[in-house]
Write a structure and sequence with these properties.
Oligomer: homodimer
Number of strands of chain A: 17
Number of domains of chain A: 3
Pfam families (chains A, B): Aminotran_1_2, GntR
Keywords (chains A, B): DNA-binding, Pyridoxal phosphate, Transcription, Transcription regulation
Radius of gyration of chain A: 22 Å
Organism (chains A, B): Bordetella pertussis (strain Tohama I / ATCC BAA-589 / NCTC 13251)
Number of helices of chain A: 16
Protein name (chains A, B): GntR-family regulatory protein
GO molecular function (chains A, B): DNA binding; DNA-binding transcription factor activity; pyridoxal phosphate binding
């Protein structure tokens, strides 16, 4: 386990996560013995107290139990567990393809969704509105309007509101990033940041390596910019395969950038190991390929914020893109980025594309994010998402057919579910819609047919009796189709 | 004079403008007799009362005087008048060129500006902050935050906030446009609207016809999208030359669109005649070239809002782009567009580029713009700009060398000044900067060297004693260089 002093997540939690993953993937089976505390100390170069804390965390999480004089043992899961989604074939990278249909696919998806009354929305990747600090933001906005109304009528400041840029730079330390406020560029969501990053490093016809599966929003951007996408096999447990990427870069010229969501990836919700993050940064630097990081979900980890790829970047080869859309306020559309090596070009593109963002909402966000209230909100939001995610995962395990596969993530709000063979996701999608249930079918996340029996299920909604019934209904639809 | 029933500007004002232009351009010289009221009735198919009202307006404006039993006569101007900027050579269209230096030119311009302390800003194309309804917007925003705080934390509605779209559609009637709220797409300023329009109709390498001179922001967009620009000669009095455009379209294939600012063009502040507007719409429709209209300044006419090109568009070939940046609130960055024939593609591009705009500021703007207070604000703003513009024009006439040329516009906030031969605008720009005075040099508005002895002078600042002194100083810099 690679260890970096600047990671703000306590070491014992990271150690616990390491073993949690081993237990969830079956590397450590029920009734097996955990390594002894003494062995943990030796193997991971941690203190005795850290090793003990990690074990107690796993015990609290119901994964292991202490037996007197014998040490810790792995517990049988309290609910039937599903096998994790299997690892991808890392030799299976696609040929780079120009996306020409994803816009239409997304439009069809949205149009279909709108044709049916909605009873349960498992498609929207957002926490429920009440999980966001609506009153506090309302007050912050009112305060900003009262104290600095001239922000409404004066010309907009370049790159963003100074206090907001300062808060973002300070908050970025939590994922290991050192940046000055001057380096921060405020954008219209992470989506605009990704557009600017891609436009800065690539031209139409160029190839961009992406995770497979990946967020359809990214595929739409690539299509709209006339870029080709090279899908790199990505593990539901560990994220993008560095081996597959290396292989792809040897095979394909003209790859200008890699876009990676290292933390709680969409749709997989996987988190890359620190060692893989370091390797990826080095590989891109060595091969002269820009590394574009989308860290939209990073702050939503059960045990805090994992490190950003950017924290390993010494040369300025990583363009960091982030958003407050999932963490602070879906309705404010605030994003930001660090362009580093490309910051001059990115600044010009931002100016030419949409001019600087309006400052008043930034002032309000800065006001709120500068206080401890934001930390308390994040802690609550993580807890909310964890509870909802585990309830949804349990419902999948309980109701879906036995050979359904699911890797339960340690953060974020998305579940990636592999259906039994022979049950096409598009059919489930359409039948679920008719029952008022929205899910996102696997084909939205790739230009290939690799994910035609996968579903993305969002855990953004509180797990009520209605939602439980909807999950049962969804499982019935899956089972009936077999 | 072409007349359209849906024009909201009273007919007598338009008739007065017609003769105002004739007087200002010397077609009717001082001491010459105006056509008799009876002749006005006959020539323009207007009522006797309309003709009389037009004459009284010109009399109120100090342009003509009534002599008993003899009719109206043109007055000698109360201040020394400058000759208008001459008409362009309409055969002089440039070859389409890929812009590769405008970003750098703009960056250098901004960087130069920031190196010197500022005493008078004649570069910024905005009215002073106090000319915008800061308090009313502050209240509207606070009200929106109180009544609909969920807009901060719920997912954003597609295309824009419903009430804002409805108000924009209603307000668009003022420039002759019939549109339903459903057709309105809210954007991040007019800049984003222009980006989306161009991306919808053209691909990198294509050619776009533009006015010459034109706003450097448009040239930056073209450069950033890899588009070529074909500069069409544009009259400081009547706007883009339809003859020159027709000629250019015959000569150059691959022209995908024409971008035109028909009302108070930047930098010329000219307004196209209604007959030219109609011809332009027909020409583009006939030749299958998209017509992209930028109507940022339309509402800032001394006598109301001139018709939009869009009001002549029956086939959906005109993409209308507009902004509230100059008229309502520079700090809110609200823009919008009507994509018509391309609306599906534009909607997809907007979604891929920046997602829908955040709704709360739109709700606040809708609240304010739905009331008569907005009309009263616009009337005051027009009056403010008119006073400032005439004071600035008088200062140019009084202090600048005799062979300076200037066409005084009837709306907007910009003066386009031709310096005497031998006085390069870049030298004036640099020397003025050292004196703390910012102007925009002509070379910013073209990829050619046609405007190297032109200046754009913004009338956005109230005409105080300091500003008067700065104008005197600017004139000294010009004179000293000769």
């Amino acid at each position: 386990m690679h260890h970096r002093a600047m990671n703000t997540q306590p070491l014992y939690l990271r150690l616990a996560d390491h073993y949690r993953r081993a237990i969830q993937t079956g590397v450590l089976a029920p009734a097996q013995r955990m390594p002894s505390v003494r062995n943990l100390v030796r193997a991971h170069h941690v203190s005795l107290s850290t090793a003990l804390q990690a074990c107690r965390q796993l015990e609290d999480d119901g994964l292991i139990e202490a037996r007197p004089r014998s040490g810790y043992f792995v517990l049988r899961p309290r609910r039937p567990a599903l096998a994790p989604v299997p690892e991808p074939d890392i030799k299976g990278a696609l040929d780079p393809a120009q996306y020409v249909g994803i816009h239409d696919r997304v439009s069809d998806f949205i149009a279909s969704c709108q044709q049916h009354p909605l009873s349960a929305d498992f498609a929207l990747a957002a926490a429920p509105p009440q999980a966001y600090p609506m009153r506090a933001l309302q007050l912050a906005l009112t305060r900003a309007a009262r104290h600095t109304p001239e922000l409404l009528t004066a010309p907009v400041p370049p790159y963003g509101h100074p206090e907001f840029r300062a808060v973002l730079a300070r908050r970025a330390m939590e994922c290991g990033i050192s940046a000055t406020p001057d380096e921060v560029l405020v954008t219209h969501g992470c989506i605009e940041a990704l557009n600017l990053a891609l436009r800065a490093v690539a031209r139409p016809g160029d190839t961009i390596a992406v995770e497979s599966p990946t967020y359809f929003g990214l595929l739409q951007i690539l299509e709209s910019l006339g870029l080709r996408a090279l899908e790199i096999p990505t593990s539901p447990q560990r994220g993008i395969s560095i081996e597959a990427l290396e292989l792809a870069l040897q095979t394909h010229a003209n790859v200008r950038a890699v876009v990676v969501v290292p933390n709680f990836q969409n749709p997989l919700s996987c988190v890359m190991d620190d060692s893989d993050k370091a390797r990826l940064v080095t590989l891109c630097e060595r091969t002269g390929i820009a590394l574009i990081e989308d860290d939209t979900y990073g702050a939503l980890g059960d045990h805090g914020t994992p490190l950003a790829l950017k924290s390993w970047d010494d040369s300025g080869n990583v363009i960091y893109c982030a958003s407050l859309h999932k963490t602070l306020a879906p309705g404010m559309r605030l994003g930001w980025m660090l362009g580093r090596r490309w910051s001059r070009r990115i600044g010009m593109l931002k100016f030419a594309q949409s001019r600087p963002n309006p400052p008043l909402p930034q002032a309000a966000a800065a006001d709120y994010m500068g206080t401890k209230a934001y930390d308390r909100h994040l802690a609550r939001l993580r807890q909310t998402l964890r509870v909802q995610r585990e309830a949804m995962a349990a419902a999948v395990a309980r109701h879906f057919p036995d050979d359904t596969r699911l890797s339960v993530p340690t953060g974020g709000m998305l579940l990636w579910v592999e259906l039994p063979a022979g049950m096409p996701a598009m059919r489930v999608f359409e039948q679920a819609l008719r029952a008022g249930i929205r899910i996102t079918p696997g084909p939205m996340f790739s230009n290939s047919n690799r994910y035609d029996h996968f579903l993305r299920i969002s855990c953004g909604v509180p797990y009520t009796a209605d939602i439980a019934a909807a999950m049962q209904r969804l499982a019935d639809i899956v089972a009936a189709g077999l």
